[in-house]
């Protein structure tokens, strides 16, 4: 799951989506220099015409709309617009976007790049794993753990199966992703915002489809479906079609408008699977009426909950299997700790007691989302990974830098997940120089592989539940490829999401809780806040859910009809 550095991060004045995105419906007006921008969510069952009338009565003008889920982008020059809109019986709430500061681009959090922040890195290279399709596959211990190295001989994926990467973008110029990337189906719903993303790369601030200025989405895409083409590495489902749904900012933030519009688009064009390795900013937990929050913030969070639930339901009804990461906060999602990180944008973080019955971590705690925890090479739950019987579905390889305590592999890069990465992002991070060569000292962190014609791909290690979720998404895509039926209207295969989920869960490799059940990470250098209790039995528990995803079983065990 993508998480941002939040200490002194960004200043902006609101709570809901905070950003306007590319409208999913028709625009009726353009923002003016003096008008403030808002995101408004309609109440359940309110017709679009009624919602627009209520917005106008409150003094706003609709400039973008997603009628399918009752989401509207609005401008108004009334200072009391938000209060007037929230008071309307037709609207849930409104939140203003008002930039009051600047923060430089942030990419990966301290979990995902723990290896680069460590002062005592190991030098072990790690074992080689399994038969390989591509040169770097021997470094992909995750594929071996979930038997994807075997499943690809039976079912490598169908081109007619489409997987959406709802993330920071996908670098379609990468030679391992280009063969499988669909520009026609891909969309960018997250225009750059200079206050958080830095200067826009293009005049419109809407980056072209097939670009990724963060790297997170490209890494996720490679795990799902990097091509088996004799270059670099291959994904879990190396022949499926990859679709970029840019719902995340270059800085790594994911705001409501962009995420909702991405999910609605996925449903409308009939994508088979969507991977979601993030949470919706600025609230780690969106609560109905948390007493630590102002009335305006409470209304904004209620609107976020309603809009996300609608969007997830919409995508599910239209045949999209939804897969999400459980998060990197090392907590039981059924018994969350107080949250002191929110709002991570647009306000001052403060400690909030999280009531599990009225607060949600979205999208993973939303309807129909398959929640995935992370394990390391030893199959131990990664120290950072969230867990809990309430939300977990399965576990998958997510990497764990600190795995292998007492062995040469402890604190080595090879314990993490290797996948595709944009060259220009690696250059900005100092891993690659201007000539495209790996900089000294980073040879164990990033790899380069080139075709005979001189086209080169770059690959780096990350860890997180963000890396676990795409392993499960890849298996979901294989299930659709193996058991789906032809849908000539959509031009590919289709399989009901509930059937995909059932096959994924029942073929996962069961894994019992550790003994003792209270797992301490003290040997790995973690304090008691990382201690995790594993509830449940072998067939279902809080660390592994129904088990570790098994790609080979998923495509060889007959599906229940």
Secondary-structure map:
Blueprint: E1 36-42, H1 48-57, E2 61-66, E3 71-76, H2 81-87, E4 91-97, H3 114-117, H4 141-145, H5 148-154, E5 162-167, E6 187-188, H6 194-197, H7 216-225, E7 241-246, H8 256-269, E8 273-276, E9 286-287, H9 295-317, E10 321-325, E11 359-360, E12 369-375, E13 394-397, E14 417-421, H10 423-428, E15 446-450, E16 456-462, H11 465-483, E17 485-487, E18 492-494, H12 497-506, E19 518-519, E20 532-533, H13 551-556
Parallel strand pairs: 5-7, 5-8, 6-7, 8-10, 10-12, 12-13
Antiparallel strand pairs: 1-3, 1-4, 2-3, 9-11, 14-16, 15-16, 17-18, 19-20
Helix pairs in contact: 7-11, 8-9, 11-12
Summarize the structure in words:
It is a single chain. The protein has 561 residues and is α/β, with parallel strands linked by helices. It has a single domain, classed as Rossmann fold, CATH 3.40.50. 22% of the residues lie in helices and 16% in strands. The protein has 13 helices and 20 strands. Strands 6-7-5-8-10-12-13 form a seven-stranded parallel sheet, sandwiched between helices. The protein has a four-stranded antiparallel sheet with strand order 2-3-1-4, sandwiched between helices.
Summary keywords:
13 helices; alpha/beta; globular; Rossmann fold; single chain; 561 residues; disordered N terminus; 22% helix; 4-stranded antiparallel sheet
């Amino acid at each position: 799951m993508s998480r941002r550095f939040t200490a002194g991060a960004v200043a902006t004045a609101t709570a809901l989506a905070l950003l306007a995105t590319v409208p999913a419906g028709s625009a009726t007006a353009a923002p003016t220099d003096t008008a403030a921008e808002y995101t408004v969510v309609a109440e359940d069952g309110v017709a679009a015409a009624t919602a627009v009338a209520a917005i106008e009565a409150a003094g706003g003008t609709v400039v973008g709309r997603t009628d399918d889920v009752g989401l509207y982008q609005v401008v108004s020059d009334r200072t009391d617009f938000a209060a007037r809109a929230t008071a309307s019986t037709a609207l849930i709430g409104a939140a203003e976007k008002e930039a009051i500061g600047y923060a430089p681009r942030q990419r990966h959090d301290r979990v995902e790049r723990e290896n680069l922040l460590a002062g005592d890195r190991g030098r072990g290279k790690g074992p080689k794993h399994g038969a390989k399709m591509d040169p770097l596959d021997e470094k992909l211990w995750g594929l071996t753990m979930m038997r994807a190295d075997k499943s690809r001989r039976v079912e490598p994926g169908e081109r007619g199966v489409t997987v959406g990467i709802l993330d920071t973008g996908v670098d379609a110029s990468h030679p391992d992703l280009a063969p499988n990337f669909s520009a026609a189906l891909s969309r960018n719903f997250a225009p750059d915002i200079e206050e958080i993303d830095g200067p826009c790369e293009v005049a419109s601030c809407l980056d072209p489809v097939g670009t990724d200025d963060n790297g997170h989405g490209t890494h996720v895409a490679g795990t799902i479906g990097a091509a088996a083409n004799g270059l670099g590495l291959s994904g879990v489902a190396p022949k499926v079609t990859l679709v970029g749904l840019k719902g995340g900012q270059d800085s790594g933030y994911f705001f409501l408008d962009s995420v909702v519009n991405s999910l609605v688009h996925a449903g409308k064009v009939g994508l088979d699977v969507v991977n979601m390795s993030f949470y919706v900013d600025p609230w780690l937990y969106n609560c109905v009426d948390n007493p630590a929050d102002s009335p305006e913030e409470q209304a904004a969070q209620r609107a976020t909950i309603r809009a996300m639930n609608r969007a997830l339901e919409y995508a599910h009804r239209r045949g999209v299997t939804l897969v999400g990461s459980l998060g990197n906060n090392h907590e039981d999602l059924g018994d969350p700790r107080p949250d002191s990180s929110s709002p991570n944008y647009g306000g001052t973080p403060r400690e909030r007691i999280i009531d599990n019955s009225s607060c949600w971590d979205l999208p993973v705690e939303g309807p129909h989302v398959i929640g995935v925890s992370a394990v390391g090479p030893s199959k131990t739950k990664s120290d950072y990974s969230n867990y809990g019987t309430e939300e977990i579905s399965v576990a998958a390889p997510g990497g764990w830098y600190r795995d292998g305590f007492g062995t040469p592999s402890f604190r080595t890069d090879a314990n993490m997940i290797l996948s595709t990465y944009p060259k220009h992002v690696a250059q900005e991070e100092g891993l690659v120089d201007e000539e495209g060569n790996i900089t000294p000292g980073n040879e164990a962190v990033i790899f380069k592989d080139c075709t005979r014609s001189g086209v080169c791909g770059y690959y780096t290690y990350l860890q997180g539940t963000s890396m676990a979720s795409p392993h499960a998404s890849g298996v979901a895509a294989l299930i659709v490829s193996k058991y789906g039926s032809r849908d000539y209207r959509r031009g590919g295969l289709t399989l009901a999401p509930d059937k995909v989920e059932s096959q994924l869960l029942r073929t996962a490799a069961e894994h019992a809780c550790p003994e003792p059940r209270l797992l301490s990470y003290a040997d790995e250098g973690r304090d008691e806040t990382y201690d995790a209790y594993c509830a449940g039995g072998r067939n279902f528990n809080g660390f592994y859910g129904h088990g570790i995803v098994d790609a080979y079983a998923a495509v060889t065990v007959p599906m229940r009809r």
